[in-house]
Amino acid sequence: MATTTATTRGSTPAVHRPRPDHLDSKLAYLTRVLKTPTIGRVWQDLADTARDANWSHEEYLTAVLERQVADRESAGNMMRVRTAHFPAIKTLDDFNLDHLPSLRKDVLAHLATATFVPKADNVVLLGPPGIGKTHLAIGLGIKAAQAGNSVLFDTATNWITRLSRAHHAGALEAELKKIRRYRLIIIDEVGYIPFDTDAANLFFQLVASRYEQASILVTSNLPFGRWGEVFGDEVVAAAMIDRLVHHAEVLTLAGDSYRTKARRELLAKDRNK
Ligand code: ADP
Ligand code: MG
Predict the structure, then answer these.
(1) Which ligand has its closest atom nearest to the C-alpha of 99?
(2) Which residue ranges are recorded for the region named Disordered (predicted)?
(3) Average pLDDT, rounded, for the chain
(4) d(C-alpha 16, C-alpha 7), whole Å
(5) Which atom of ligand 1 is nearest the CA belonging to 188?
(6) H-helix or E-strand containing 102?
(7) Is 90 close to ligand 1, i.e. is its CB under 6 Å away?
(8) Contact at 8 Å (CB) between 31 and 40?
(9) Alpha-carbon dihedral of residues 113, 119, 121, 125, nearest 10 degrees?
(10) What pLDDT does residue 273 have?
(11) Phi, psi of 153 (to 5 degrees)
(12) Which of 90, 137, 225, 249 has the highest CB neighbour number within 10 Å of its CB?
């Protein structure tokens, strides 16, 4: 093996130092077989850098592998964000914290680290329409996906539709198991539409099936005290809330709707014209 390596140390700098053709094609072949396209792309440039900077073989190998791993991780992150089915891409960076003095910034910063997901903890965002619940849910979901967790977003109504289809097909358990493969599910808009008894029971089963095993992030326009109205049954609602909040961060958001605020500002601008 050593005989095939040309010694180029000390030669004049060039874009790429000359090396035997067969080495290029061999490396192209090897990186293809290993499915490491990044290595195929960067090994030459890094080899030149390594010679110029007198890197050890170990340092060179580490640099090459690091580039491959970084590319693979970022491709994985992009894929996880895509497959989470967020209704829009809203990031925490885009979220104006000044508008929401009621939001505990330290708690949000902690949730943004996504460490709640491997612990199977939950997050509940409560507050009136337009306050930013869905935005925050997506922003936190993206953070969780970028931390390597599989995430799936849907509205409460759509989750129920999915579960009742499975239930009618006699495959509810299998469906719940499938959903458990997602480390974090986001259930948006609990409370906008009341559930009938079947839907309430399915929702309860969804929450129960993930208890201490996988995370849920729920948003609702209603405080817990009114969930009995949504689920048509105080007992079911209480049992579900118990499981949901046992290991959870509950953020209650208060203030003006961001949508209304944007509209007010537009109107004010119009009046001042
Ligand atoms: P909710 O789900 O609580 O009804 P949304 O998250 O849908 O509210 O917010 C309504 C709109 O206002 C969205 O377009 C959202 O991106 C935006 N928005 C809400 N709060 C903020 C904020 N603090 N900073 C930036 N945009 C916000
Ligand atoms: Mg919303």
Answers:
(1) 1
(2) 1-21
(3) 91
(4) 13
(5) 2
(6) none
(7) yes
(8) yes
(9) 10
(10) 63
(11) -105, 140
(12) 137
Half-sphere exposure of 116 (CA within 13 A, CB side): 25
Instruction: Quick: pLDDT tens for 110-139.
Output: 999 999 999 999 999 999 999 999 999 999
Please give the CATH topology (third level) of the domain spanning 84-261: Rossmann fold (3.40.50)
Residues forming CATH 3.40.50.300 domain(s) in the chain:
84-261
Mean pLDDT of the region 135-163: 97
The CA radius of gyration of the chain, in Å to the nearest whole number, is: 26
Query: Residues near 65 by Cβ (< 8 Å), separated by ≥ 6?
Result: 39
Mean pLDDT of 67-89: 95
Question: Could you tell me if the CB of 139 is within 6 A of ligand 1?
Answer: no
* Closest to 186 measured CA to CA, from 129, 233, 242, 139: 139
What are the φ/ψ torsions at residue 151 (nearest 5 degrees)?
-135, 145
3-state SS string for 170-184: CCHHHHHHHHHCCCE
Task: Name which residue leads in pLDDT, 1 or 268.
Answer: 268
Q: How far is the CA of 24 from the centre of ligand 2 (A)?
A: 54
Res 226: pLDDT: 95
Predicted TM-score (pTM) of this structure: 0.83
Q: Tell me if 110 sits within 8 A of 248, measured CB to CB.
A: no
Q: Name the DSSP class of 222.
A: S
The number of C-alpha atoms within 13 Å of 17 and in the hemisphere containing its C-beta is 21
Region 45-65: mean pLDDT is 96
What is the model's pLDDT at position 261?
Answer: 75
For residue 162, the one-letter residue type is R
Kindly write down the DSSP assignment for every residue of 151-207, as one continuous string.
EEEEEHHHHHHHHHHHHHTT-HHHHHHHHHTSSEEEEEEETSS---HHHHHHHHHHH
